[in-house]
């Protein structure tokens, strides 16, 4: 075997491994991710989202949360909807990201509660995505119940000082919250 063929033969497994890693990364990037968004239930609750079907998630005015909306959330991602100003605090249901990110127009409207005089339409500061209602839990999952679940001990929501209105959730955490909601009378089991 010539030196060129030996070099080529040695390169093939490396090329296959590299191609496999690229395919795995592409598959991971295409897989839905999971998030939690906080909302003041008296302003816009899961019931409002259920009524509207799809709604722009406006009014996020924290840079880190904005970056998540703008850079990370993709259509098809699943979202836990958390009522942050309710008694008790709770996860009320599930939504799905229904659009690509776009500028939050409420930042430009002087009569809107979320108006930002420093936001420029030609270089927007604030972004949003549309959320589509998926499910309202018959048995919402309280923050107390979340905190009591060992599988959720690392959940961003439960960390001291965590105040972000848009947060990442792992696939395991998302599944655990669904199990808590459905296991607590949210769905009847088939006989």
Topology:
Layout: H1 3-30, E1 34-39, H2 46-52, E2 54-56, H3 63-72, E3 78-83, E4 90-97, E5 102-103, E6 127-128, E7 130-142, H4 143-148, E8 166-169, H5 171-186
Parallel strand pairs: 1-3
Antiparallel strand pairs: 1-8, 2-7, 3-4, 4-7, 5-6
Overview of the structural elements:
The protein has helices spanning 3-30, 46-52, 63-72, 143-148, 171-186, and strands at residues 34-39, 54-56, 78-83, 90-97, 102-103, 127-128, 130-142, 166-169. By secondary structure, the chain is α+β, with helices and mostly antiparallel strands. A 6-stranded mixed β-sheet has the order 2-7-4-3-1-8. Strands 5-6 form a two-stranded antiparallel sheet. A hairpin with a 6-residue loop joins β3 and β4. The chain is globular and about 45 Å long.
Search tags:
disordered C terminus; globular; six-stranded mixed beta sheet; 191 residues; alpha+beta; 5 helices; 23% strand; two-stranded antiparallel ribbon
Give a short synopsis of this structure.
The protein is α+β, with helices and mostly antiparallel strands and 191 residues long. Helix content is 35%, strand content 23%.
What's the arrangement of strands in the largest beta sheet? 2-7-4-3-1-8
Number of helices: 5
SSE topology string: HEHEHEEEEEHEH
The percent range for helix content is 25-40%
What is the global morphology?
globular
Low-confidence stretches: 4-28, 184-191
Radius of gyration over C-alpha positions, nearest whole angstrom: 21 Å
Compute the separation of the termini in Å: 67 Å
Mean pLDDT: 86
Category by helix and strand content: alpha+beta
- Which percent band covers the strand fraction? 15-25%
The biggest beta sheet reads: 6 strands, mixed
What is the total tally of β strands? 8
């Amino acid at each position: 075997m010539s030196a060129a063929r030996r070099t080529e033969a040695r390169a093939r497994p490396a090329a296959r491994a590299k191609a496999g890693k690229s395919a795995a990364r592409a598959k991971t990037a295409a897989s839905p991710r999971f998030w939690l968004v906080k909302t003041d239930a008296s302003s816009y609750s899961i019931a409002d989202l259920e009524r509207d079907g799809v709604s722009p998630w406006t009014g996020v005015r924290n840079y880190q949360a904005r970056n998540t909306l703008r850079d990370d959330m993709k259509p098809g991602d699943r979202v836990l909807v958390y009522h942050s100003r309710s008694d008790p605090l709770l996860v009320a249901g599930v939504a799905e990201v229904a659009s690509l990110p776009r500028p939050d127009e409420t930042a430009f409207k002087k009569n809107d509660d979320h108006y930002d005089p420093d936001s420029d339409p030609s270089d927007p500061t604030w972004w949003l995505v549309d959320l589509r209602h998926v499910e309202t839990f018959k048995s919402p999952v309280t923050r107390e119940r979340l905190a009591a679940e060992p599988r959720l001990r690392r959940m961003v929501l439960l960390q001291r000082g965590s105040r972000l209105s848009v947060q990442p959730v792992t696939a395991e955490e998302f599944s655990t919250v669904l199990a808590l909601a459905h296991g607590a009378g949210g769905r009847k089991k088939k006989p």
